[in-house]
C-alpha cells in the first residue's frame, strides 16, 4: 500500500501543553490528519512504548502511526497489540536496513533528507528500503533549533526532483504554504506547531486538508458493477468523476448485461480477483476518495470492508444498491447483514427512500418520516446520510443531508424535472459527491454543487437520444456548453500551425521585385529609399504600439521585453534608416518627411486599432509578423537561398542586409514567438481565434508593405 502522506502530524509535548499529546492527536485525526509521528526526544523507550499503545487506541486505524527514531519501542508496542505502522529515522539514527528487516515489508519507513548527499545515499539503498523522505526545513523553526539551513520552497523543489520517492515537506510549514509546496512536488505537509499549538486542532487540520485537496486533482476510485450501455455503474461513475475535475479509477464488482430497458444478465467475478484489483490500485496510487456502488453478495462486501480497513481512505461515499426498480430486494440476508457492517466504514451514505427503509428496518411514510429515519441511521452508523426524495409522489423532490454526530441537518428543496432519462442518477450523484468532497468542499457545499450539476445534466439529457427506455443523464452537458470540445493546443503546436498559415504570404514575399532586386543587387535606389522612408514612418508608430503592449503586459518579464523592443525600434532601427535617408541630420523631423503610402496607412491603422481597442494577447499576436517574417527573410538571405551575392560585402545594400540577420533581433524574435504562443495556448477558443486573425491580417500587411515600392511606382 502506498501511504497517504497529505497531512502529517509530528508531535511535540511542549507545544501540546496541558491538552497533552494523546488528546491533540485525537482531535487532529478527527480533522483529517493522515499520518502521526510520535516524536519525544526526552521520553524513555518504556514511556514511548506506553504512548504508542495509547495513540494506537485513540487513532483506531483512522491514520497511520509511526514513531521517530525508536525502533525498539515500536517493536515492543507491536508485541503488546498496538498498531504501529512504522518508524521515521534521521540520518544518524538506527539503520534503515535494520528497521526494514525488523518491521517487515509492509511497514512504513521514512528517512530524513536535507541535502543532495542525503538523496545520493538513499539512491544507494536497495529498492523498497525507504517508503518516503522527510525533506526540510522549509523555513527556520523553533521546534528544532539544530536544524540545517532552510531550503525554502524552491530549494525543496530542486531536491525532490531528484527522486521518485514521495517527499514530505517539513520545518516551519504554514497553511499558506500548501499550494506552493504541492506544486513543488510535495506528497504531503509535515506540521508541528501549527497543529500542536492550535487552539482547535480539529478545525486547523480540516483547514489544511481543504487547502491541500483544492490544490490538486482528486484521485477517486469507484468500486461498483459495470453497465455496458454506459448510463450507470462504473461507466457513469467515471463520467461523473471527470465532470467534477477528478481522476477516476474503477474496480469491478460485477459484470452486467443491461441497457436502458433493463438487466438481462449478471456475472460476479471471484471476490479474490476484486481484492487483486483493489490492491493493485492502492499499492501504486494514493486514493483520495472511494465511491462504493453495486456489491453483489456477502463475499464481495466483506472483501471491500477488509480492504477499507487496511487502506482507510479519507472519504468513502456508499450508494447502497439494495432494491430494484420493481421493488425486489437485490441482496440476500447474509449480504444485507454484511452491508450494514460496511456502512460503519463510510463517511456518507446515499440511499433512496426504499433503501433507507431497508437500512432503518422500518417503513417510511412521507418526507418528514424519511428525515427521522435518516437521523436514526446516521446515529447508528456514525456517518452522514444523504437521503434522496426522488421517489416521492408529486412535483417536490427534496434531498437532505443528515449527520447526527456533527449536528448537521440541511434540506435542499427541488422540483421534479420531467424526463424519462433517469438511468444511473444514483451512481452519478454519489460519485460526483465523492469527487467534490475530495476537492476540499464541505459536505453541505459538496451536496449543493453536486445537486446543481445533476439537475443540469437531467435537464439536458434529451439531447443524447440514447436508448428506448430510461436513458442516461448528460454528464458533460454543462462542460460542453461552457467550455466546448476544442482541445487546447500546446504552444509548440500553435507555433507550427501559425507559421504554416503564413506559407502563402511568405512565398509571395519571396517573389516580389523588391525582394528579388534587394537580394541580387539590381534594386534601384529610388524604390529602396521609398521603402526606407515608409518604414521610418511605420517604426515611429510601431514603437508606440510596442509600448502599449508593455503597458498591458501581465508580468514584469513581458513588460520589460516589449519596452526593450519599443526602445530598439526607435533608437537602433531608426538610426539605421536615418543613415540612408538623412545622413547629415540623423534622426529628426526630416527622417519622417515622406507622405505615408496606402500600405503604410493600412498597416498602422490595423496595429493601432488592436493596440487601443483589443487586449494584450491580441496585440502581441498582431505585432508578431514584424518580428517573425523579417527574421525568417534575413536568415534565408544570409543562407544564400536568394543567391550568394546577398552575402557579398560588395553588395550595394550590404550594410542594410546585415541587419536582417542580426543575432540580437533573432533572439528577440524567438522570445516574441514564445510569448505569443504561450498566450494563445491558455486563451479561450474565441480569444485564440481573434489572436490568429490579428496575426494573419498583419502578415498580409507585411506582404503589401514589401510590395509598396513598386506598386507606388506603377500607380504614379
From TrEMBL:
> What's a Pfam family in this record?
TMP-TENI
Cofactor annotation? Mg(2+)
Q: Which residues form the Thiaminase-2/PQQC domain?
A: 513-707
Q: Domain Pyridoxamine kinase/Phosphomethylpyrimidine kinase spans what residues?
A: 227-474
Cofactor annotation remark: Binds 1 Mg(2+) ion per subunit.
Q: Where does 2-[(2R,5Z)-2-carboxy-4-methylthiazol-5(2H)-ylidene]ethyl phosphate bind?
A: 141-143, 172, 192-193
Q: Keyword Nucleotide-binding: yes or no?
A: yes
Q: Which UniProt keywords apply?
A: ATP-binding, Kinase, Magnesium, Metal-binding, Multifunctional enzyme, Nucleotide-binding, Thiamine biosynthesis, Transferase
Which residue numbers delimit the Thiamine phosphate synthase/TenI domain? 7-195
Entry-linked CDD domains: HMPP_kinase (cd01169), TenA_C-like (cd19365), TMP_TenI (cd00564)
List residues binding Mg(2+).
Answer: 69, 93
Which pathway does it operate in?
Cofactor biosynthesis; thiamine diphosphate biosynthesis; 4-amino-2-methyl-5-diphosphomethylpyrimidine from 5-amino-1-(5-phospho-D-ribosyl)imidazole: step 3/3; Cofactor biosynthesis; thiamine diphosphate biosynthesis; thiamine phosphate from 4-amino-2-methyl-5-diphosphomethylpyrimidine and 4-methyl-5-(2-phosphoethyl)-thiazole: step 1/1
According to the lineage, what is the superkingdom? Bacteria
Gene Ontology molecular-function annotations: hydroxymethylpyrimidine kinase activity; phosphomethylpyrimidine kinase activity; thiamine-phosphate diphosphorylase activity
Top-level enzyme category:
transferase
Q: Which residues bind 4-amino-2-methyl-5-(diphosphooxymethyl)pyrimidine?
A: 37-41, 68, 112, 144
**Enzyme Commission number, as recorded:** 2.5.1.3
Family that this chain belongs to: Belongs to the thiamine-phosphate synthase family.
Q: What does this protein do?
A: Condenses 4-methyl-5-(beta-hydroxyethyl)thiazole monophosphate (THZ-P) and 2-methyl-4-amino-5-hydroxymethyl pyrimidine pyrophosphate (HMP-PP) to form thiamine monophosphate (TMP). Catalyzes the phosphorylation of hydroxymethylpyrimidine phosphate (HMP-P) to HMP-PP, and of HMP to HMP-P.
Protein name (Swiss-Prot/TrEMBL): Thiamine-phosphate synthase
**Biological source species:** Microbacterium phyllosphaerae
Q: Print the organism lineage.
A: Bacteria, Bacillati, Actinomycetota, Actinomycetes, Micrococcales
